[in-house]
TrEMBL record:
<feature type="domain" description="Mannitol dehydrogenase C-terminal">
    <location>
        <begin position="290"/>
        <end position="476"/>
    </location>
</feature>
<dbReference type="InterPro" id="IPR023027">
    <property type="entry name" value="Mannitol_DH_CS"/>
</dbReference>
<keyword id="KW-0560">Oxidoreductase</keyword>
<dbReference type="InterPro" id="IPR036291">
    <property type="entry name" value="NAD(P)-bd_dom_sf"/>
</dbReference>
<dbReference type="InterPro" id="IPR000669">
    <property type="entry name" value="Mannitol_DH"/>
</dbReference>
<feature type="domain" description="Mannitol dehydrogenase N-terminal">
    <location>
        <begin position="32"/>
        <end position="279"/>
    </location>
</feature>
<dbReference type="Pfam" id="PF01232">
    <property type="entry name" value="Mannitol_dh"/>
</dbReference>
<dbReference type="InterPro" id="IPR013328">
    <property type="entry name" value="6PGD_dom2"/>
</dbReference>
<dbReference type="Pfam" id="PF08125">
    <property type="entry name" value="Mannitol_dh_C"/>
</dbReference>
<dbReference type="InterPro" id="IPR013131">
    <property type="entry name" value="Mannitol_DH_N"/>
</dbReference>
<dbReference type="InterPro" id="IPR008927">
    <property type="entry name" value="6-PGluconate_DH-like_C_sf"/>
</dbReference>
<comment type="similarity">
    <text>Belongs to the mannitol dehydrogenase family.</text>
</comment>
<dbReference type="InterPro" id="IPR013118">
    <property type="entry name" value="Mannitol_DH_C"/>
</dbReference>
<keyword id="KW-0520">NAD</keyword>
<protein>
    <recommendedName>
        <fullName>Mannitol-1-phosphate 5-dehydrogenase</fullName>
        <ecNumber>1.1.1.17</ecNumber>
    </recommendedName>
</protein>
<dbReference type="InterPro" id="IPR050988">
    <property type="entry name" value="Mannitol_DH/Oxidoreductase"/>
</dbReference>
Amino acid sequence: MTVGASRLDLGALRRLPADARPLVEPGTVPAGVLHLGLGAFHRAHQAVYTEQAVASAGGDWGIVGVAPRNADLVRVLTAQDNLFSVSTLSAADRHTRVIGALAGVRLAAADPQAVVALLADPAIRVVTLTVTEKAYQLDPAGGTLRPDPALVADLTSDRPPVTVPGLLVRGLLARAAADAGPIALVSCDNLPANGRRLRGLVQHALAYAQAPRQAVDWVGAQVGFPGTMVDRIVPASTTETLAAARRALGVEDLAAVAAEPYTQWVIEDDFPGGRPAWERAGAVLCADAGPWERLKLRTLNGVHSAAAYLGALAGCETIADALALPHLATVLRRLIAEDVAASFTPPEGVDVVDYGEQVLARFGNPAIRHRTLQVAMDGSQKLPQRILHTIADLRAGGRSAHWAALVLAAWIRFAQGTADDGRTLPLDDPLADRIRAALADAPQTPAGAVDAVLALDEVVPPEVAADAQVRADVTAWLTDLTRHGVRPTLTAA
Ligand code: CS2
């Protein structure tokens, strides 16, 4: 931090370059959206769309942002009058702008009842979520609720809720009791069929909590669960992100984020209490986001995970570095053209191979330093929708899943914990203990490791686990990766 640099707040706005100022007058737009999960992705995605929608079409759609646990972020945003900046970075260009979409911030861990009260507030008509896959506590392969002890306590006692599903269910029960008007709950996480999964989560959790019939019926009639596809590459902020924002703004912004120029939001139009005019900001409102979501999860995120695991094993720090590994781009192109594109029907008018080319160009953006280890996190929660469903659909159609099998093999090798140069790799995953135990108990051979991972039934769909050809393909790749390492495996592929 530069000593003496003043910080971003309402008073600093008039000193900013004109093109760096918010599109709306901060603090003047009453709250209509409650957002759970104040991470970098929300700040560079939904907050930007919502600000633009309000600037263009008006409406009481200020966002109250709730951080589940990040007390520092809430402190910083409060000191900055809820302002933060987004820097848009490409090789050729950079631009920084302050976003005025936040009407307030809350820390759920410190004041869960305030969040419950907001969920029951008639002014709040839309709730968006970016809480990461694992916070839903759904079994990643099938989507059934697997409540941990904290969620069980949230659902079966009167103590203040500490989990995301606990907050949602308590809030909806309070809203139903107050008959506070219809609302939409919008998952903006990379889950498969995220709207349907969130609806299922709420229904299961209400049943678990033995909610009264009347409340269950109220939720059935008054709550929408639109599915969405969200897309923008937004790495975790670093000291360089903050330093670059300071250079652009002339003031300190400790909540600054940096993102790529590309951004996309496809939303099912199911908002019984109304919504911001997001289409005015470029979002696509539609009846079924499913084809868009499969396109993005399989082509972008599946290939991202492939680059992350292979890159991390080869010692690459960022995704852009990984893309520069000899032959990796060729292998990823074949993964897209031969496996991903053959696994599903894309949205009308979209060519998966062209979309994949655009994705690879985005991954190569040298101005975005997205760490391979960040994308590699939580593989057990990500791989079903990113690669295992691709494998399942290819095999159901009688096709090979040769390249997709490489991604699974790379994850297994990553989970074994050692990079090609002997360095230790961290397994940051909610199922880390289970994965490690399964690998430790298995015969210490590639086939043993593959069998152990295929047997993780909350991650691997049963038809994939039972498929001898898939098992053979993954074992062959893992044998190569173990014997020779990533670079020779890619060269020989
Ligand atoms: C990434 C995503 O971290 C990850 O797992 O694959 O966060 C990705 O950057 C976004 O989904 C892009 O929209």
